[in-house]
Amino acid sequence: MRTLLLTIAVGGLAVSVTDPVAGVVSVTREELAARDRWAEAHLGSGRQLPFSFTYGGRSSTALLAKWPVQQRAEPLDGQRTRHTTTWTDPDTGLVVRRVSVEYRDFPTVEWTVYFRNDGAAHTPIIEDIQALDVSLDRGEAGEYLLHHAVGSPCAPQDYQPLETVLGPGAVKRVAGADGRPTSSDLCHFNLELPGRRGMIVAVGWPGQWASEWVRDAHRGLRVRVGQELTHFRLLPGEEVRTPLMALQFWQGGDWLRAQNIWRRWFIAHNLHRPGGKLPPAQWCGASLTTNMMVDATEENQKEYIDAYLARGFRPDFWWMDAGWYPCHGDWTHTGTWEPDPARFPKGLRPVTDYLHERGIRSILWFEPERVRRGTWLADKHPEWVLWGDGQGLLDLGNPAAWEWLVDHVDRLIVDANVDIYRQDLNIDTLWYWRSNDAPDRQGITEIRHVTGLLAYWDELLRRHPSLLYDNCAGGGRRNDLESMRRGVPYTKSDYADDPVAVQGQTYGISMRIPYFAATWGSSDDPYLCRSRMAHVFGECLDPRVEGHLSAFPERLQEWRRTVRCYWGDFWPLTPYSLDNGEWIAWQFDLPEEGEGVIQAFRRAECPSDSLTLRLRGLDPYRRYVLDDADIPGEREVLGRDLMEPGLTVTLPKPSSAALVFYRRK
User: Fold this and answer.
1) Shortest CA distance to 149 belongs to which of 180, 178, 182, 127?
2) Which of 217, 476, 533, 592 sits at a 20 to 30 Å CA gap from 655?
3) Distance from the first to the final alpha carbon of the chain
4) Is residue 16's pLDDT more than 90?
5) C-alpha neighbours within 13 Å on the C-beta side of residue 187
6) Closest residue by Cα to residue 228 from 513, 433, 397, 42
7) 3-class DSSP state for residue 85?
8) Could you say which DSSP state residue 426 is in?
9) What is the CATH class of 274-565?
10) pLDDT one-digit tens code per residue, 203-226
11) Which residues contact 379 (CB under 8 A, 6 or more apart)?
């Protein structure tokens, strides 16, 4: 039996509370005013434009100041206004169009820049396009502090929070890697300035982006973000675009408070809502123990489903992963997108009908961009593929390939009655793009593929408004803002087996992406299961084996109680660490509802059996009822005592986890 008590906080382990009186994280007038001042200075038609490029060897700053300009504004809904500013070169016919959106309910602005050739000839070279190019002055004494994070390179450090002090003369470059935007670093930053203020910067570009943060010798900082390589001419009638840029301004509190406002903005205005509703919390069953799906048949899928139901478990959905197509025992053999007739002679519909009759939805895996030699696409339409050694990338900038893919996948979704579409990408794309660019068209193949990819997702979702899209991409490697507006990461990382790494993933991703799935597990041990909790929770145990899933009813009940809190604010309660000799803990808080959950983990080699945590976001003058999942009974504590001195959690055994719920009286 472990104990839960109040005591003095251990110095250095808890996140400080800068505003213990403010329970609900809310946008301030000062933050909205900061947004308005910035928008007035940078989103008009003046000289302080937030983007830059070079055209025919001349700077856009000098050119756009002389070109004719037009502006218009239109409301999108009660909280958003779209502003369109257009500049036209009278000599060459180049049209530069910036489309920006201003949010009234959040201190947030965003924009995308488009280039179109309305002339009769090729344009001069357009190069070094920066979707964001701004110079800042820190003002008062202090220094710039850049909060950023590792992406998902399939390593223990996936989503690790990072900090870089940008002192005089510092130059920090952060970029994607090999064409997948978050395979090395996240394209999400929080720049903290002196005086408890700052700016969140996020990029929407499922391709190769790069950022530079260049500090001068005095108080200035220049920030440049864009597609990594642009050097091209536009053909007559051709149009291209930049990455989407989003900025959120914050003042007061600390950078973690700003991240929670970001979470709220993300949920309110970005998270895809199938059928008009937020994506649900779900747990899934699967037969992935059969070597992905390469050994799957209609018969054994039904057998697995029956085994789950016989044990009293009804999954929310059934996971059909890679290998359902003709692949000769190798799930990476992609390019023939039809159910394997030997294993599914009637297609996948008998399986999905079997699921739907039992109240279970289906998820189906695709990797449409990778094409292997010897498949239908390779044999029938090699001209649609950007080829490498033994495999290639389906060119989504090719209109014929794009149209075929949309119609073909649409038919598969309809024929199989699929509920959740899962798209993977397990190859690096940058080499294919750049190998197919002419010297005066560098960056064009990438732009064409990216815009085709986004249009492909949009068209599938238009045809299937209730379809949920799972954006996998090699395990969290396309978590840019544009991709996240269309899909959710059911596999946030392919580094999925180490509970310490998975804890670190939840800690890091929760600050920036408020909806994601758990990694797969093969145990109902409470330490492992609690490490993997998320909006989507999956098990890979075989229900046909005696002893498997014996403790899972309790784990499932815990998850269902915990998961609603994941829509709330996220507060780290310890420093980030992958040290197996440390604790890690965090809090999900629903301040409007007055409830939340604390999750704390004592790792395998941690010598200390207790840790004191200073909670955040509570009302200091209200009483809270604490309910520990492992200790019978409840107790009441004043909110201010939970924040200072704090809540102490004791776990007598290593490799154990605490799950403490609270509600306001």
Assistant:
1) 182
2) 476
3) 27
4) no
5) 37
6) 433
7) strand
8) -
9) alpha beta
10) 999 999 999 999 999 999 999 999
11) none
pTM above 0.85, yes or no: yes
- Residue 68 burial (CB < 10 Å; 0-12/13-18/19+)? exposed
Q: Residue 102, class by beta-carbon neighbours within 10 Å (0-12 exposed, 13-18 middle, 19+ buried)?
A: buried
Q: The tokens of 504 are what? A: 């670190």
Residues contacting residue 493 through CB under 8 Å, at least 6 positions apart: 152, 154, 158, 159, 475, 476, 501, 502, 505, 519
Query: How far are the Cα atoms of 105, 204, 235, 445 from residue 261, in angstroms, in the given order?
Result: 11, 19, 42, 36
* 646, amino acid identity: G
Strands 108-117 and 239-241: antiparallel
Burial of 1: CB neighbours in 10 Å, binned 0-12, 13-18, 19+: exposed
In angstroms, rounded to a whole number, what is the distance separating the alpha carbons of residues 6 and 624? 13
According to the model, what pLDDT value does residue 521 have? 65
Q: How does residue 258 score in pLDDT terms, banded at 50, 70 and 90?
A: very high
**Domain map (residue ranges) of the chain:** 4-24+567-664, 29-265, 274-565
Q: What is the mean pLDDT of the segment spanning 355-375?
A: 97
Q: Assign residue 549 a region: left if phi > 0, alpha if psi is -120 to 50, beta otherwise?
A: left
Taking only Cα atoms into account, the Rg of the chain, rounded to an integer number of angstroms, comes to 26
Residue tagged 């357009």 (tokens): 126
What pLDDT score does 372 carry?
98
CA distance 245 to 657: 39
Residue 284 CA to residue 295 CA, distance in Å, equals 19
Cβ pair 79, 105 in contact under 8 A: yes
Q: How far is CA 432 from CA 221, 292, 310, in A?
A: 35, 28, 49
The three-point CA angle 530-532-537 to 5° equals 105
Number of Cβ atoms within 10 Å of the Cβ of 494: 19
Per-residue model confidence (pLDDT) at position 311? 86
Average pLDDT over residues 359-367: 97
595 near 565, Cβ under 8 Å? Answer: yes
CB neighbour list of residue 192: distance below 8 Å, 6 or more residues apart: 144, 145, 146, 147, 198, 255
> 72 pLDDT exceeds 80?
yes
Read off the pLDDT of residues 303-329 as tens digits, 9 standing for 90 and up.
Answer: 999 988 998 889 999 999 999 999 999
In the structure, what pLDDT confidence band is assigned to residue 6 with cuts at 50, 70 and 90?
very low
Q: Which two three-digit tokens encode residue 480?
A: 């840019």
Domain spanning 29-265: CATH 2.70.98.60: yes
Lowest mean pLDDT among 139-153, 549-563, 573-587, 623-637: 549-563
SS3 39: helix
The tokens of 346 are what? 């009637």
CA distance to 126, 364, 451, 486, per residue, from 421 (Å):
37, 6, 20, 11
Q: Topology of 4-24+567-664 in CATH?
A: Immunoglobulin-like (2.60.40)
Question: What are the tokens at 330?
Answer: 């190798």
Structure tokens at 531: 């490490």
Phi-psi region of 475 (alpha: psi -120 to 50; beta: other; left: phi over 0): left
* 3-state per-residue secondary structure call for 168-218: CCCEEEEECECCECCCCECCEEEEEECCCEEEEEEEECCCCEEEEEEECCC
Tracing tokens 């959950």 back to the chain, one arrives at 597
